[in-house]
Design a protein that fits this description.
heterodimer, A: alpha+beta, Ubiquitin-like (UB roll), Fumarate Reductase Iron-sulfur Protein, Chain B, domain 2, 3 domains, globular, B: 296 residues, alpha/beta, Rossmann fold, 4-stranded parallel β-sheet, 13 helices
Protein backbone atom coordinates (compact mmCIF):
# COMPACT_ATOMS: atom_id res chain seq x y z
CA UNK A 1 0.00 0.00 0.00
CA UNK A 2 1.44 3.37 -1.05
CA UNK A 3 1.17 6.24 1.35
CA UNK A 4 2.69 9.69 1.76
CA UNK A 5 3.41 10.55 5.37
CA UNK A 6 3.66 14.31 5.74
CA UNK A 7 5.51 15.12 8.94
CA UNK A 8 5.79 18.45 10.71
CA UNK A 9 9.46 18.55 11.62
CA UNK A 10 11.35 20.74 14.05
CA UNK A 11 15.06 20.73 14.81
CA UNK A 12 16.17 23.05 17.63
CA UNK A 13 19.76 22.94 16.36
CA UNK A 14 18.85 23.93 12.84
CA UNK A 15 19.43 27.46 11.62
CA UNK A 16 15.82 27.40 10.53
CA UNK A 17 14.02 28.53 13.70
CA UNK A 18 10.55 27.33 12.65
CA UNK A 19 9.18 23.97 11.59
CA UNK A 20 9.10 22.44 8.13
CA UNK A 21 6.71 19.94 6.56
CA UNK A 22 8.53 17.00 5.03
CA UNK A 23 6.90 14.35 2.84
CA UNK A 24 7.87 10.68 2.84
CA UNK A 25 6.28 8.58 0.06
CA UNK A 26 6.60 4.97 1.21
CA UNK A 27 5.07 1.52 0.69
CA UNK A 28 3.64 -0.08 3.83
CA UNK A 29 1.76 -3.19 4.82
CA UNK A 30 -2.06 -3.02 4.53
CA UNK A 31 -2.41 -3.48 8.28
CA UNK A 32 0.36 -1.08 9.27
CA UNK A 33 -0.28 1.48 11.98
CA UNK A 34 0.85 5.08 11.69
CA UNK A 35 3.61 4.18 14.16
CA UNK A 36 4.74 1.31 11.90
CA UNK A 37 4.99 3.81 9.05
CA UNK A 38 6.98 6.29 11.16
CA UNK A 39 9.40 3.63 12.38
CA UNK A 40 9.86 2.44 8.80
CA UNK A 41 10.71 5.99 7.72
CA UNK A 42 13.23 6.33 10.54
CA UNK A 43 14.82 2.93 9.82
CA UNK A 44 14.87 3.02 6.01
CA UNK A 45 14.59 6.61 4.81
CA UNK A 46 15.62 9.20 7.35
CA UNK A 47 17.49 8.36 10.54
CA UNK A 48 17.22 11.95 11.73
CA UNK A 49 13.47 11.63 12.40
CA UNK A 50 12.77 11.71 16.15
CA UNK A 51 9.77 10.14 17.79
CA UNK A 52 8.91 8.55 21.11
CA UNK A 53 7.49 5.04 21.30
CA UNK A 54 7.82 1.83 23.26
CA UNK A 55 5.13 -0.86 23.65
CA UNK A 56 3.37 -0.52 20.25
CA UNK A 57 0.24 -1.87 21.95
CA UNK A 58 -1.57 1.22 23.32
CA UNK A 59 -0.36 0.48 26.83
CA UNK A 60 2.67 2.70 27.49
CA UNK A 61 1.23 5.97 26.19
CA UNK A 62 4.50 7.12 24.60
CA UNK A 63 3.44 7.75 21.01
CA UNK A 64 0.66 10.32 21.39
CA UNK A 65 0.80 12.84 18.56
CA UNK A 66 -1.52 14.64 16.20
CA UNK A 67 -2.65 12.56 13.25
CA UNK A 68 -4.60 14.53 10.69
CA UNK A 69 -4.98 17.31 13.24
CA UNK A 70 -6.35 15.14 16.04
CA UNK A 71 -4.53 13.78 19.08
CA UNK A 72 -4.16 10.02 19.41
CA UNK A 73 -1.77 7.12 19.72
CA UNK A 74 0.18 6.39 16.53
CA UNK A 75 0.32 2.71 17.50
CA UNK A 76 -3.48 2.49 17.78
CA UNK A 77 -4.22 4.28 14.51
CA UNK A 78 -4.35 2.31 11.30
CA UNK A 79 -2.57 4.00 8.42
CA UNK A 80 -5.12 2.74 5.89
CA UNK A 81 -7.91 4.50 7.79
CA UNK A 82 -5.97 7.73 8.15
CA UNK A 83 -5.14 8.48 4.52
CA UNK A 84 -6.99 11.18 2.63
CA UNK A 85 -8.12 10.62 -0.95
CA UNK A 86 -4.59 11.35 -2.17
CA UNK A 87 -3.07 8.82 0.21
CA UNK A 88 -1.61 11.48 2.53
CA UNK A 89 -1.41 11.25 6.34
CA UNK A 90 -0.53 14.41 8.28
CA UNK A 91 1.54 13.83 11.41
CA UNK A 92 2.49 16.51 13.94
CA UNK A 93 3.80 16.53 17.50
CA UNK A 94 1.22 16.71 20.31
CA UNK A 95 -0.28 20.19 20.68
CA UNK A 96 -0.34 22.62 23.62
CA UNK A 97 3.17 21.54 24.64
CA UNK A 98 6.57 22.68 23.44
CA UNK A 99 8.35 20.43 20.98
CA UNK A 100 11.75 18.96 21.85
CA UNK A 101 12.38 17.73 18.31
CA UNK A 102 10.15 16.53 15.46
CA UNK A 103 7.39 14.39 17.02
CA UNK A 104 8.79 14.47 20.55
CA UNK A 105 6.76 16.77 22.81
CA UNK A 106 8.13 18.28 26.00
CA UNK A 107 5.96 16.77 28.75
CA UNK A 108 7.20 19.02 31.59
CA UNK A 109 3.95 20.98 31.64
CA UNK A 110 1.95 17.74 31.60
CA UNK A 111 3.78 16.23 34.58
CA UNK A 112 3.73 19.50 36.53
CA UNK A 113 -0.05 19.56 36.30
CA UNK A 114 -0.32 15.91 37.38
CA UNK A 115 1.93 16.70 40.38
CA UNK A 116 -0.16 19.76 41.18
CA UNK A 117 -3.23 17.66 41.98
CA UNK A 118 -1.18 15.56 44.46
CA UNK A 119 -1.81 12.18 42.83
CA UNK A 120 -1.86 9.96 45.88
CA UNK A 121 -4.48 8.92 48.43
CA UNK A 122 -4.97 11.35 51.30
CA UNK A 123 -7.22 9.68 53.88
CA UNK A 124 -8.21 11.95 56.76
CA UNK A 125 -10.34 9.58 58.80
CA UNK A 126 -9.32 6.98 61.37
CA UNK A 127 -6.75 4.58 59.93
CA UNK A 128 -8.24 1.07 60.02
CA UNK A 129 -6.37 -1.63 61.90
CA UNK A 130 -6.33 -3.87 58.87
CA UNK A 131 -6.78 -2.91 55.24
CA UNK A 132 -9.28 -0.35 53.96
CA UNK A 133 -12.45 -2.16 52.94
CA UNK A 134 -14.11 -0.64 49.90
CA UNK A 135 -16.98 -1.84 47.74
CA UNK A 136 -16.27 -3.67 44.54
CA UNK A 137 -18.67 -1.30 42.78
CA UNK A 138 -16.70 1.82 43.72
CA UNK A 139 -13.45 0.27 42.50
CA UNK A 140 -15.04 -0.88 39.24
CA UNK A 141 -16.21 2.69 38.70
CA UNK A 142 -12.66 3.95 39.27
CA UNK A 143 -11.15 1.38 36.93
CA UNK A 144 -12.44 3.38 33.97
CA UNK A 145 -10.40 6.37 35.19
CA UNK A 146 -7.32 4.43 36.26
CA UNK A 147 -7.24 3.12 32.68
CA UNK A 148 -5.54 6.44 31.84
CA UNK A 149 -2.06 5.78 30.41
CA UNK A 150 -0.97 9.43 30.72
CA UNK A 151 -0.35 9.71 27.00
CA UNK A 152 -1.32 13.38 26.80
CA UNK A 153 -3.66 13.11 23.79
CA UNK A 154 -6.34 14.99 25.74
CA UNK A 155 -3.90 17.70 26.80
CA UNK A 156 -2.66 17.98 23.21
CA UNK A 157 -6.13 18.89 21.92
CA UNK A 158 -7.68 20.69 24.91
CA UNK A 159 -9.33 23.87 23.62
CA UNK A 160 -8.94 25.68 26.95
CA UNK A 161 -5.21 24.96 27.28
CA UNK A 162 -4.87 26.44 23.81
CA UNK A 163 -5.80 29.85 25.22
CA UNK A 164 -4.74 29.44 28.86
CA UNK A 165 -1.71 27.40 29.88
CA UNK A 166 -2.60 27.80 33.57
CA UNK A 167 -5.65 25.54 33.18
CA UNK A 168 -5.09 22.23 35.00
CA UNK A 169 -6.32 20.42 31.91
CA UNK A 170 -8.20 17.18 31.26
CA UNK A 171 -5.52 14.63 32.26
CA UNK A 172 -4.77 16.15 35.67
CA UNK A 173 -8.45 16.79 36.43
CA UNK A 174 -9.39 13.22 35.48
CA UNK A 175 -6.55 12.03 37.71
CA UNK A 176 -7.93 14.24 40.50
CA UNK A 177 -11.34 12.59 40.09
CA UNK A 178 -9.64 9.23 40.51
CA UNK A 179 -9.03 10.38 44.13
CA UNK A 180 -12.15 12.47 44.83
CA UNK A 181 -14.26 9.46 43.81
CA UNK A 182 -12.19 7.03 45.88
CA UNK A 183 -14.00 6.22 49.15
CA UNK A 184 -10.64 5.99 50.93
CA UNK A 185 -9.69 9.59 50.11
CA UNK A 186 -10.82 12.55 52.22
CA UNK A 187 -12.88 12.50 55.39
CA UNK A 188 -14.64 9.57 57.05
CA UNK A 189 -17.48 9.80 54.53
CA UNK A 190 -15.00 9.66 51.65
CA UNK A 191 -15.55 13.33 50.75
CA UNK A 192 -12.29 14.92 49.55
CA UNK A 193 -13.09 18.40 50.84
CA UNK A 194 -9.60 19.87 50.69
CA UNK A 195 -9.05 18.64 47.16
CA UNK A 196 -12.43 19.84 45.93
CA UNK A 197 -11.80 23.26 47.46
CA UNK A 198 -8.44 23.60 45.68
CA UNK A 199 -9.73 22.14 42.40
CA UNK A 200 -12.52 24.73 42.41
CA UNK A 201 -10.06 27.65 42.29
CA UNK A 202 -9.48 29.62 39.04
CA UNK A 203 -7.69 27.48 36.40
CA UNK A 204 -9.37 24.43 37.92
CA UNK A 205 -12.43 22.34 37.21
CA UNK A 206 -14.86 25.18 36.45
CA UNK A 207 -12.73 26.46 33.55
CA UNK A 208 -13.52 23.39 31.41
CA UNK A 209 -15.59 24.49 28.43
CA UNK A 210 -17.32 21.11 27.87
CA UNK A 211 -16.13 20.87 24.26
CA UNK A 212 -15.88 17.06 24.39
CA UNK A 213 -12.51 16.99 22.60
CA UNK A 214 -10.81 15.09 25.43
CA UNK A 215 -13.61 12.52 25.41
CA UNK A 216 -13.23 12.11 21.67
CA UNK A 217 -9.44 11.74 21.49
CA UNK A 218 -8.79 9.64 24.62
CA UNK A 219 -7.57 6.23 23.39
CA UNK A 220 -8.59 4.48 26.62
CA UNK A 221 -12.16 5.68 27.20
CA UNK A 222 -11.31 7.71 30.30
CA UNK A 223 -13.73 10.50 29.26
CA UNK A 224 -11.96 13.27 31.23
CA UNK A 225 -14.71 15.83 30.61
CA UNK A 226 -17.34 13.55 32.12
CA UNK A 227 -15.13 13.19 35.21
CA UNK A 228 -14.78 16.96 35.46
CA UNK A 229 -18.58 17.31 35.29
CA UNK A 230 -18.93 14.69 38.03
CA UNK A 231 -16.43 16.67 40.15
CA UNK A 232 -18.58 19.80 39.71
CA UNK A 233 -21.39 17.90 41.38
CA UNK A 234 -19.07 16.63 44.13
CA UNK A 235 -17.85 20.18 44.79
CA UNK A 236 -21.39 21.57 45.07
CA UNK A 237 -22.40 18.68 47.35
CA UNK A 238 -19.34 19.37 49.54
CA UNK A 239 -20.42 22.98 49.94
CA UNK A 240 -18.12 24.64 47.42
CA UNK A 241 -20.85 26.15 45.29
CA UNK A 242 -20.02 29.81 45.83
CA UNK A 243 -18.64 30.46 42.35
CA UNK A 244 -19.96 31.39 38.94
CA UNK A 245 -19.75 27.85 37.54
CA UNK A 246 -21.84 26.33 40.33
CA UNK A 247 -24.32 29.23 40.36
CA UNK A 248 -24.65 28.94 36.56
CA UNK A 249 -25.62 25.25 36.82
CA UNK A 250 -28.02 26.00 39.69
CA UNK A 251 -29.71 28.92 37.93
CA UNK A 252 -29.97 26.93 34.69
CA UNK A 253 -31.72 23.91 36.19
CA UNK A 254 -33.94 26.10 38.36
CA UNK A 255 -35.11 28.06 35.32
CA UNK A 256 -35.93 24.93 33.33
CA UNK A 257 -37.41 23.16 36.35
CA UNK A 258 -39.84 26.01 36.98
CA UNK A 259 -40.72 27.08 33.45
CA UNK A 260 -39.65 24.28 31.08
CA UNK A 261 -37.26 26.54 29.20
CA UNK A 262 -34.17 28.64 29.80
CA UNK A 263 -34.55 32.23 30.96
CA UNK A 264 -31.57 33.66 29.10
CA UNK A 265 -32.02 37.16 30.50
CA UNK A 266 -31.78 36.19 34.15
CA UNK A 267 -29.24 33.35 33.81
CA UNK A 268 -26.12 35.56 33.61
CA UNK A 269 -27.39 37.79 36.43
CA UNK A 270 -27.93 34.83 38.74
CA UNK A 271 -24.58 33.35 37.67
CA UNK A 272 -22.45 36.32 38.72
CA UNK A 273 -24.71 37.05 41.70
CA UNK A 274 -27.44 39.65 41.95
CA UNK A 275 -25.35 41.82 44.29
CA UNK A 276 -22.19 41.69 42.17
CA UNK A 277 -22.53 45.24 40.84
CA UNK A 278 -19.14 45.43 38.99
CA UNK A 279 -19.90 42.20 37.07
CA UNK A 280 -23.43 43.33 36.30
CA UNK A 281 -22.12 46.66 35.02
CA UNK A 282 -19.75 44.67 32.82
CA UNK A 283 -22.79 43.21 31.03
CA UNK A 284 -24.14 46.69 30.28
CA UNK A 285 -22.39 47.31 26.91
CA UNK A 286 -23.33 43.85 25.61
CA UNK A 287 -26.89 44.24 26.91
CA UNK A 288 -27.16 47.67 25.30
CA UNK A 289 -25.90 46.36 21.95
CA UNK A 290 -28.36 43.45 22.11
CA UNK A 291 -31.23 45.79 22.97
CA UNK A 292 -30.46 48.27 20.20
CA UNK A 293 -30.31 45.39 17.71
CA UNK A 294 -33.65 43.97 18.85
CA UNK A 295 -32.21 40.79 20.25
CA UNK A 296 -32.53 41.11 23.99
CA UNK A 297 -34.23 37.93 25.33
CA UNK A 298 -37.88 38.53 26.34
CA UNK A 299 -38.27 40.49 29.60
CA UNK A 300 -41.17 38.29 30.62
CA UNK A 301 -40.11 34.66 30.51
CA UNK A 302 -43.07 32.47 29.59
CA UNK A 303 -43.60 28.96 30.91
CA UNK A 304 -44.43 26.05 28.61
CA UNK A 305 -48.10 25.10 28.41
CA UNK A 306 -47.88 21.91 30.49
CA UNK A 307 -45.42 23.42 32.98
CA UNK A 308 -47.04 21.74 36.00
CA UNK A 309 -45.80 18.37 34.75
CA UNK A 310 -42.24 19.76 34.42
CA UNK A 311 -42.43 21.26 37.92
CA UNK A 312 -43.62 17.94 39.35
CA UNK A 313 -40.68 16.14 37.74
CA UNK A 314 -38.30 18.83 39.03
CA UNK A 315 -39.65 18.47 42.56
CA UNK A 316 -39.39 14.71 42.41
CA UNK A 317 -35.97 14.40 40.78
CA UNK A 318 -34.04 17.47 41.88
CA UNK A 319 -35.35 18.86 45.14
CA UNK B 1 -41.56 16.06 3.82
CA UNK B 2 -42.47 16.73 7.43
CA UNK B 3 -40.51 16.95 10.70
CA UNK B 4 -41.17 17.23 14.42
CA UNK B 5 -39.63 20.66 14.96
CA UNK B 6 -37.46 21.28 18.02
CA UNK B 7 -36.39 24.97 17.82
CA UNK B 8 -34.47 25.19 21.12
CA UNK B 9 -34.55 28.09 23.59
CA UNK B 10 -31.92 30.37 22.02
CA UNK B 11 -33.62 30.55 18.60
CA UNK B 12 -36.42 32.48 20.29
CA UNK B 13 -34.33 34.15 22.96
CA UNK B 14 -30.82 35.50 22.48
CA UNK B 15 -30.79 34.78 18.74
CA UNK B 16 -34.37 35.64 17.76
CA UNK B 17 -33.43 35.95 14.09
CA UNK B 18 -32.85 32.18 13.85
CA UNK B 19 -36.36 30.85 14.44
CA UNK B 20 -38.14 32.93 11.74
CA UNK B 21 -35.34 32.45 9.20
CA UNK B 22 -35.41 28.66 9.70
CA UNK B 23 -39.20 28.62 9.38
CA UNK B 24 -39.03 30.83 6.29
CA UNK B 25 -36.56 28.72 4.33
CA UNK B 26 -38.29 25.46 5.30
CA UNK B 27 -41.59 26.92 4.12
CA UNK B 28 -40.08 27.97 0.77
CA UNK B 29 -38.40 24.57 0.37
CA UNK B 30 -41.66 22.74 1.11
CA UNK B 31 -40.38 21.24 4.36
CA UNK B 32 -43.32 21.07 6.78
CA UNK B 33 -42.53 21.74 10.43
CA UNK B 34 -44.81 20.35 13.13
CA UNK B 35 -43.43 21.90 16.32
CA UNK B 36 -43.23 19.49 19.27
CA UNK B 37 -45.98 20.53 21.67
CA UNK B 38 -44.64 22.36 24.74
CA UNK B 39 -41.08 21.11 24.14
CA UNK B 40 -38.68 21.74 26.99
CA UNK B 41 -35.04 22.87 27.11
CA UNK B 42 -32.48 20.17 26.24
CA UNK B 43 -30.24 21.26 29.14
CA UNK B 44 -27.36 22.39 26.90
CA UNK B 45 -24.95 20.08 28.74
CA UNK B 46 -25.25 22.29 31.85
CA UNK B 47 -28.22 20.53 33.42
CA UNK B 48 -26.64 17.17 32.67
CA UNK B 49 -23.68 17.94 34.90
CA UNK B 50 -26.00 18.78 37.80
CA UNK B 51 -28.76 16.22 37.41
CA UNK B 52 -28.54 13.81 34.49
CA UNK B 53 -31.69 11.92 35.51
CA UNK B 54 -33.84 15.05 35.44
CA UNK B 55 -32.39 16.33 32.16
CA UNK B 56 -32.63 12.91 30.51
CA UNK B 57 -36.24 12.65 31.68
CA UNK B 58 -37.08 15.99 30.07
CA UNK B 59 -35.34 14.95 26.85
CA UNK B 60 -37.14 11.57 26.91
CA UNK B 61 -40.41 13.55 27.14
CA UNK B 62 -39.51 15.50 24.01
CA UNK B 63 -38.47 12.30 22.24
CA UNK B 64 -41.69 10.53 23.28
CA UNK B 65 -43.80 13.42 22.01
CA UNK B 66 -42.00 13.34 18.64
CA UNK B 67 -42.45 9.56 18.57
CA UNK B 68 -46.20 10.08 18.95
CA UNK B 69 -46.09 12.49 16.01
CA UNK B 70 -44.44 9.71 14.00
CA UNK B 71 -41.84 12.14 12.68
CA UNK B 72 -38.07 12.59 12.69
CA UNK B 73 -37.00 15.50 14.92
CA UNK B 74 -35.45 18.52 13.24
CA UNK B 75 -33.10 20.64 15.35
CA UNK B 76 -31.59 23.97 14.31
CA UNK B 77 -28.93 24.13 17.02
CA UNK B 78 -25.70 22.10 17.24
CA UNK B 79 -25.94 22.03 21.03
CA UNK B 80 -29.56 20.79 21.09
CA UNK B 81 -28.63 18.22 18.44
CA UNK B 82 -25.69 16.84 20.39
CA UNK B 83 -27.29 16.97 23.83
CA UNK B 84 -30.53 15.24 22.74
CA UNK B 85 -28.57 12.65 20.72
CA UNK B 86 -26.37 11.90 23.76
CA UNK B 87 -29.43 11.56 26.01
CA UNK B 88 -31.04 9.25 23.46
CA UNK B 89 -27.88 7.14 23.37
CA UNK B 90 -27.92 6.72 27.16
CA UNK B 91 -31.61 5.78 27.10
CA UNK B 92 -31.14 3.16 24.38
CA UNK B 93 -27.99 1.72 25.94
CA UNK B 94 -29.61 0.82 29.27
CA UNK B 95 -33.13 -0.73 29.28
CA UNK B 96 -33.36 -0.37 33.08
CA UNK B 97 -32.60 3.36 32.85
CA UNK B 98 -35.18 3.79 30.09
CA UNK B 99 -37.74 1.87 32.16
CA UNK B 100 -37.04 4.09 35.18
CA UNK B 101 -37.55 7.24 33.12
CA UNK B 102 -40.64 5.82 31.43
CA UNK B 103 -41.98 5.33 34.94
CA UNK B 104 -41.85 9.10 35.45
CA UNK B 105 -43.37 9.76 32.01
CA UNK B 106 -46.20 7.28 32.65
CA UNK B 107 -47.80 9.77 35.05
CA UNK B 108 -48.78 11.89 32.06
CA UNK B 109 -49.50 8.89 29.83
CA UNK B 110 -46.25 9.14 27.86
CA UNK B 111 -43.81 6.37 26.98
CA UNK B 112 -40.58 6.61 25.03
CA UNK B 113 -40.21 3.45 22.95
CA UNK B 114 -36.74 4.36 21.68
CA UNK B 115 -37.50 4.88 18.00
CA UNK B 116 -36.99 8.65 17.62
CA UNK B 117 -34.48 10.00 15.15
CA UNK B 118 -32.86 13.38 15.72
CA UNK B 119 -31.40 15.36 12.83
CA UNK B 120 -30.07 18.86 12.44
CA UNK B 121 -31.36 20.93 9.51
CA UNK B 122 -27.80 20.83 8.16
CA UNK B 123 -27.92 17.03 7.79
CA UNK B 124 -31.55 17.01 6.64
CA UNK B 125 -30.78 19.29 3.71
CA UNK B 126 -28.02 16.98 2.50
CA UNK B 127 -29.30 13.53 3.49
CA UNK B 128 -33.10 13.81 3.23
CA UNK B 129 -33.92 16.81 1.06
CA UNK B 130 -30.95 16.30 -1.25
CA UNK B 131 -28.64 18.82 -2.85
CA UNK B 132 -30.20 18.08 -6.26
CA UNK B 133 -33.56 19.23 -4.92
CA UNK B 134 -32.04 22.23 -3.18
CA UNK B 135 -30.25 23.59 -6.24
CA UNK B 136 -33.40 24.61 -8.18
CA UNK B 137 -34.24 26.93 -5.26
CA UNK B 138 -30.87 28.68 -5.48
CA UNK B 139 -31.65 31.84 -7.37
CA UNK B 140 -28.78 33.98 -6.13
CA UNK B 141 -25.28 32.68 -6.67
CA UNK B 142 -22.93 33.18 -3.76
CA UNK B 143 -19.99 33.01 -6.19
CA UNK B 144 -17.19 35.29 -5.06
CA UNK B 145 -18.01 34.92 -1.39
CA UNK B 146 -15.50 33.25 0.92
CA UNK B 147 -17.27 31.64 3.86
CA UNK B 148 -15.70 30.01 6.92
CA UNK B 149 -17.63 27.07 8.41
CA UNK B 150 -17.93 26.91 12.21
CA UNK B 151 -19.66 23.74 13.42
CA UNK B 152 -20.05 24.00 17.20
CA UNK B 153 -18.69 21.20 19.42
CA UNK B 154 -21.87 19.24 19.98
CA UNK B 155 -22.53 18.50 16.30
CA UNK B 156 -19.08 16.97 15.80
CA UNK B 157 -18.31 15.28 19.14
CA UNK B 158 -18.60 12.69 20.57
CA UNK B 159 -18.94 10.95 17.21
CA UNK B 160 -20.62 7.80 18.59
CA UNK B 161 -23.73 9.75 19.56
CA UNK B 162 -23.92 11.59 16.25
CA UNK B 163 -23.92 8.75 13.75
CA UNK B 164 -20.67 10.00 12.22
CA UNK B 165 -19.45 6.46 11.51
CA UNK B 166 -22.54 5.70 9.41
CA UNK B 167 -22.53 9.22 7.95
CA UNK B 168 -18.90 10.36 7.57
CA UNK B 169 -20.11 13.07 5.20
CA UNK B 170 -21.55 14.90 8.23
CA UNK B 171 -18.02 15.95 9.14
CA UNK B 172 -17.81 18.12 6.04
CA UNK B 173 -21.49 18.93 5.66
CA UNK B 174 -21.08 22.71 6.15
CA UNK B 175 -18.36 22.90 3.52
CA UNK B 176 -20.55 20.83 1.17
CA UNK B 177 -23.44 23.28 1.54
CA UNK B 178 -21.24 26.35 1.21
CA UNK B 179 -19.69 25.01 -1.99
CA UNK B 180 -22.97 23.82 -3.56
CA UNK B 181 -24.36 27.34 -3.07
CA UNK B 182 -21.48 28.67 -5.15
CA UNK B 183 -19.33 30.17 -2.40
CA UNK B 184 -15.80 29.13 -1.45
CA UNK B 185 -15.35 27.35 1.87
CA UNK B 186 -12.44 28.77 3.86
CA UNK B 187 -10.66 25.95 5.66
CA UNK B 188 -9.29 26.98 9.05
CA UNK B 189 -8.09 25.22 12.19
CA UNK B 190 -10.76 26.59 14.51
CA UNK B 191 -13.77 25.28 12.59
CA UNK B 192 -14.49 22.36 14.96
CA UNK B 193 -13.13 23.95 18.15
CA UNK B 194 -15.03 25.58 20.98
CA UNK B 195 -16.52 29.07 20.58
CA UNK B 196 -16.05 29.69 24.32
CA UNK B 197 -19.71 30.34 25.08
CA UNK B 198 -20.05 27.77 27.89
CA UNK B 199 -17.44 29.59 30.00
CA UNK B 200 -18.53 33.13 29.13
CA UNK B 201 -19.66 33.94 32.66
CA UNK B 202 -17.02 31.73 34.31
CA UNK B 203 -13.80 32.75 32.59
CA UNK B 204 -14.57 35.59 30.22
CA UNK B 205 -10.93 36.15 29.31
CA UNK B 206 -10.58 32.59 27.98
CA UNK B 207 -13.96 32.77 26.30
CA UNK B 208 -13.00 36.00 24.50
CA UNK B 209 -9.63 34.53 23.51
CA UNK B 210 -11.47 31.69 21.77
CA UNK B 211 -13.79 34.09 19.92
CA UNK B 212 -10.84 36.25 18.96
CA UNK B 213 -8.72 33.35 17.74
CA UNK B 214 -11.39 31.78 15.52
CA UNK B 215 -12.79 34.94 14.00
CA UNK B 216 -9.32 36.43 13.44
CA UNK B 217 -8.04 33.24 11.83
CA UNK B 218 -10.97 33.11 9.40
CA UNK B 219 -10.74 36.84 8.70
CA UNK B 220 -7.01 36.65 8.01
CA UNK B 221 -7.63 33.81 5.56
CA UNK B 222 -9.88 36.15 3.62
CA UNK B 223 -13.31 35.06 4.84
CA UNK B 224 -16.17 37.46 4.12
CA UNK B 225 -18.31 35.81 6.80
CA UNK B 226 -18.56 32.77 9.03
CA UNK B 227 -21.48 30.33 8.96
CA UNK B 228 -22.65 28.33 11.95
CA UNK B 229 -25.44 25.82 12.61
CA UNK B 230 -25.24 26.68 16.33
CA UNK B 231 -27.00 29.74 17.81
CA UNK B 232 -24.94 29.48 21.01
CA UNK B 233 -21.77 29.85 18.96
CA UNK B 234 -23.48 32.74 17.19
CA UNK B 235 -24.16 34.49 20.49
CA UNK B 236 -20.47 34.45 21.32
CA UNK B 237 -18.89 34.84 17.87
CA UNK B 238 -21.21 37.68 16.86
CA UNK B 239 -22.44 39.22 20.11
CA UNK B 240 -19.09 39.23 21.87
CA UNK B 241 -16.83 39.77 18.87
CA UNK B 242 -16.37 43.49 19.67
CA UNK B 243 -15.18 42.58 23.17
CA UNK B 244 -12.94 39.80 21.82
CA UNK B 245 -11.43 42.20 19.28
CA UNK B 246 -10.70 44.67 22.05
CA UNK B 247 -8.99 41.98 24.10
CA UNK B 248 -6.98 40.87 21.05
CA UNK B 249 -6.16 44.51 20.38
CA UNK B 250 -7.14 44.35 16.72
CA UNK B 251 -10.14 44.84 14.48
CA UNK B 252 -11.99 41.77 13.25
CA UNK B 253 -15.50 42.72 11.97
CA UNK B 254 -16.39 39.30 10.62
CA UNK B 255 -20.15 38.84 10.08
CA UNK B 256 -21.51 35.55 11.45
CA UNK B 257 -24.43 33.93 9.62
CA UNK B 258 -26.84 31.34 10.97
CA UNK B 259 -27.10 28.36 8.60
CA UNK B 260 -30.72 29.15 7.55
CA UNK B 261 -29.67 32.73 6.76
CA UNK B 262 -27.01 31.44 4.36
CA UNK B 263 -29.53 29.17 2.63
CA UNK B 264 -32.06 32.00 2.56
CA UNK B 265 -29.63 34.45 0.95
CA UNK B 266 -28.89 31.87 -1.78
CA UNK B 267 -32.64 31.46 -2.28
CA UNK B 268 -32.92 35.17 -3.02
CA UNK B 269 -34.58 36.09 0.28
CA UNK B 270 -33.71 39.62 1.43
CA UNK B 271 -31.22 40.14 4.26
CA UNK B 272 -33.89 42.09 6.16
CA UNK B 273 -36.34 39.18 6.03
CA UNK B 274 -33.61 36.89 7.33
CA UNK B 275 -32.97 39.17 10.31
CA UNK B 276 -29.42 40.21 9.42
CA UNK B 277 -30.12 43.62 10.92
CA UNK B 278 -30.29 41.98 14.34
CA UNK B 279 -26.64 40.96 14.18
CA UNK B 280 -24.13 42.81 16.30
CA UNK B 281 -21.42 42.72 13.63
CA UNK B 282 -22.51 44.84 10.70
CA UNK B 283 -23.43 42.66 7.72
CA UNK B 284 -23.60 45.57 5.24
CA UNK B 285 -20.17 44.88 3.64
CA UNK B 286 -21.19 41.26 3.12
CA UNK B 287 -24.51 42.29 1.61
CA UNK B 288 -22.70 44.75 -0.67
CA UNK B 289 -20.32 42.06 -1.88
CA UNK B 290 -23.24 39.69 -2.37
CA UNK B 291 -25.08 42.30 -4.43
CA UNK B 292 -22.03 43.01 -6.60
CA UNK B 293 -21.29 39.33 -7.17
CA UNK B 294 -24.94 38.73 -8.11
CA UNK B 295 -25.04 41.58 -10.60
CA UNK B 296 -21.68 40.76 -12.20
Amino acid sequence: MDVTVKIKRYDPESNNSGYVWQEYPIAIDENATVLDALIQIREDDDGTLSLRCSCRSAICGSCAMKINGQGGLACKTKASESMDKDGVILVEPAGNMDTVKDLVADFDMFWNKIREIEPYLQPEGVVPEGEYVVSNESMLHLSAVTACILCGACVSDCTVLEVDKTFLGPAALAKAYRFTADPRDGDEDGVSRDRLKVLGQPSGMWDCTRCNICVQVCPKGVAPMDRIMAMHDQAIEAGYGNNNGARHADAFIESVGHTGRLDELRLPVKTVGITNIPALLGFAPVGWRAMTHGKLPPLIHKSVEDVQIVRNLYRKLEQ
Amino acid sequence: MKYAFYPGCVSQGGAPELYPSAKLICDRLGIELDEIHAWTCCGAGVMQEKNQLFSDTLNARNLAKAEQQGLTIMTICSTCQGVIAQANRRLLADPDYLAEINGYLAEEGLEYKGTAEIKHLLWILIEDYGLDNLLPHVTRSLGGLRLAPFYGCYIVRPTEALGIEEHPERQTSLETLIEILGATAVDFEGKTKCCGFPILTINEKNSMAMVGNHTSEAKDLGADAMVTPCPLCHLNLDGFQPKAAKQANRSIDLPILHLPQLIGLAMGISPAELGLKKHIINTAPLELKLASSTSS
